[in-house]
Write the structure tokens for this entry.
Amino acid sequence: MCDQDHFEDDRQQFEALGLVTRKQFGAMLGAGIAMMLPQVANAAAVTEADVTVKTPDGVADGYFVHPSTGTAPGVLMWTDIFGLRPAFRQMAKRLAESGYSVLVMNPFYRVKKAPTAEQGSATAIPSLMPLAQSLNETTHMTDAKAFIGWLDQQPSVAKNRKMGVQGYCMGGPIAFRTAAAVSDRIGAVASFHGGGLVTEMPNSPHLQAAKSKAQFLIAVAANDDMRSPNEKNVLKETFAKVSLPAEIEVYTGAAHGWCPPDSQVYNEPQAEKAWSRLLALYGKALS
């Protein structure tokens, strides 16, 4: 599900390598406090709001941000196990400033409203496992349909262009299943240090995603690749068999969880590389 319980080992390793300082680590221990992301060149003015979306299981709380004028491709962003928090709002806003209408939801709305991790990304993983275990293939699919349907109702979302979906850690497999659940609307899928993309089950997320019509970006943490070295090969072979474009890369020196700016192992150079590849994917697949 989520390998972020390796964060302390990774933090020590990457601190030793000079990739994160103890001061940076300490500064990020507050509840969801994120480092500032680099500014977007020629950033679009954006409008942002807290929103609610009705689903078959209740009412989900989330955050929606989009360019203030015109229409833009919709993007659904799935969080990691730490849920909806300032870091993901910051990431969504940055993407909106780049020309997208972005919805990021609280995946654990069935249990509690955001924030769901009391200490942000410093929250102990075991305390969050009951939240993660409240989700399954069925909730992934029903939520995906509800959230994409909501996006399609927004006047700021371009109806004549495909949507994107991206996920972090546990959000990776949910992004894959979103592509399967709403295959007619999803044109691009991105997974960053996704956990559980490939399983031995017939409903494995990678097999479901292979039935979509999307293009893929799969950014793999170096330590995840060390633990599961064949997963990238399975992904490459699976998408190649169905002729779906897929950029699959192991990010050297990047530990699991390196992309969100409040992560204990945030790696800005590699996070920016992943971000640039995301923009390239969306620019190609959602144009």
